[in-house]
Amino acid sequence: MPLRFLPALLCLPPIVWALAVFPLPPWPLAAAIVVYAALLWRWPVAFLLVIPAVLPALDLGLWTGWTTVEVPDLFALATLGVLIARSPPGPRDMFPSGWMGAILLLLILSYAVSATIGLTSPLGYTGHSDNPYLRPDNALRLLKGPLEALVLLPFLRQRQRVSGDAAVWLGWGLAAGLAGVTLETIVERALFVGVMDFSIDYRVVGPFISMRIGGGHIGAYIAMVLPFVLSLGLAGVLGWLLMPLLGVGGAYSLAVTFARTAYAAALGSCGTAGVGLLVTALRGKRALLAFAIIPIVLVLGVIGAAASSEMMRARFSTLAEDLLTRENNWQTGWAVRDTGILADVFGMGLGTYQRTMLSRATLERPSDLSVEHDAEGAFVSLHALTPLYLGQKVVLPPEGRLHLSLRFRGDTPTAGISFILCDKILLYSENCRSRQATPSTPGQWQTVTTSLLSNGLGSASIAGVLPRPVELAVYATTIGTTIAFRDVSLRDPAGHELLANGNFSHGLDRWLFTDDDHLAWRIKNQYLMRLFEMGFVGLASLLAVCGFGLAGGIRAGLRGDPMGGIVAGAVVSFLISGISDDVLEVPKIATLLFLICFAGMTLWEVKPSRPPSDRSA
Question: Partners of 374 in the beta sheet?
Fold first, then answer.
């Protein structure tokens, strides 16, 4: 067996393991991975289409409860295994030389050191937690984003060296991902507020379950990838037909995020891309003049329409107040940081911010929860320092009385427990029914039984086929208390169990927590967060990668490559988004950002000598 098949075999066991323990029926996912692997074996360039598409759009965490290992990670593993066996990169592709190589080494060094510090830091760790943000292996969750981009870099460089069109294929993949997110956004709006109703205070989350603790992740993503819609203009007649449709859809999705920073980031990205295309057109590619101005006009028009809505007028009226809130958040987070040369250079450690806040802060401390065990089995312990809900999506009968039961323990007389059944995707609840109980004897287990009517829940639907999701959630009624619960059961009138893993024998599979207090989980500034967790080395490496990706895009644009301005616009968008949010806390956004920057780096290099007519997929 050739040695190159060994990495493929090493990638197979984690995929098989993940499918074996997958909380949902695994066969559709397994079939999709097999089909993708076959497609990739036939056309190795397909990874530049599929990975940027599935990363943002394929997120099943709402139903699986998985937040550390995600479905797109399995596609990334399959990509690595198949490409090494099918089309291994050459020595020239493995790592760039010169300044680019030095910048990548700095990036790798910064992540390696800060991840090591994060994994070994005892801050906030009391022995066990099932809150992924309060575990040492949160460092590995955050490391996943840049790591996936780095392992794909040699194949991206190989494609660029051989065919010179890596950025174009990546652009089409990013446009496909935006199409998926746009479709999910439209479905969400249709189910909950109506597609064209801009007056209701409802901000979409789409497939970004990372927003269960707040953040403007979907807006930052859309603003970053929106310029790549223009890459469809390089795909022939079909691309020209799809470009206006996806452009309008993407701009609509951006508008209904109602995120002010996302609007600014989109103006920056599309403005940069438009100028880049204009420069390219003036250098001889006159056909590009036809759509060089499109992104600016489109985004200005949609943002102008959204900004005139009642919802956005209210958002803009609180701008000064929100800025003060962010400044207080920055100061509160920075105050708990270590002082000294090690913290300045390498930071507190990757993924340690929430643990540091829990250990040292007096305000904005995150809640914790864990699955514990005793002689009777598993139970959840929830220490509520914020309004944290642990919920599961359920499918209900159209009407009838549901029977809810569980066993519960509170640590004080005020440590009550509440149950709420609502139409809900992630952040906003509608049509709710709730019950609550207080401990009759603090510290002792007691059984709670109650009933809830299912009439009307999940009844709103699209064409009678796709109903609103319904969620049962459990939470502590009093902040600052600890509650424990086990054997959660929800049965329909016929006695059929509607919950999965109600005894928590499989940990928190199928359960997902959300939190209404968004300030407890991050410094709402990418650059301060980078300094906090990764120090000056981490911030320098990030800015260097972004700077070189931006410079590569600009250089390519001046050379006549239309993808140059598009790549540059995406990098500008990320730099703007980072002013008011920690965008890289989402691994899939980190992967996409670094892939875009790496594409800009490859554009910096000399173009291949092979003529375009000789290129093949």
Answer: 377
Interval 70-88 mean pLDDT: 93
Instruction: Report residue 573's pLDDT band, with 50, 70 and 90 as the boundaries.
Output: very high
pLDDT bucket at 281, cuts 50 / 70 / 90: confident
CATH superfamily of 368-516: Galactose-binding domain-like (2.60.120.260)
The rounded radius of gyration (Å) of the Cα atoms in the chain is: 25
- Average pLDDT of 7-22? 90
Examine the pLDDT at 16 and tell me if it is beyond 80.
yes
Q: Tell how far CA 137 is from the center of its chain.
A: 18
Side chain identity at residue 430, one-letter code: E
What separation in angstroms does the CA of 243 have from each of 124, 238, 239? 49, 9, 6
pLDDT (mean) for 257-261: 89
Task: For the chain, give percent helix, strand, coil, nearest 5.
Answer: 55, 15, 30
Find residue 383's DSSP bridge partners: 368, 482
Contact partners, residue 466, CB within 8 Å, separation at least 6: 187, 191
Helix H or strand E encompassing 252: helix 237-255
Full strand arrangement of the beta sheet holding 429-437: 429-437, 417-424, 470-476, 388-394, 512-515
Whole-angstrom distance, CA of residue 71 vs CA of residue 60: 7
Q: What is the pLDDT of residue 254?
A: 92
The set of residues, in sequence order, having a beta carbon less than 8 Å from that of 49 and lying 6+ positions away, is: 169, 172, 173, 176
The domain locations on the chain are 130-168+217-364+518-607, 368-516
Backbone angles phi, psi at 482, to 5 degrees: -120, 130
**In angstroms, what CA-CA distances link 459 with 100, 189, 193, 463, 498?**
55, 15, 14, 11, 17
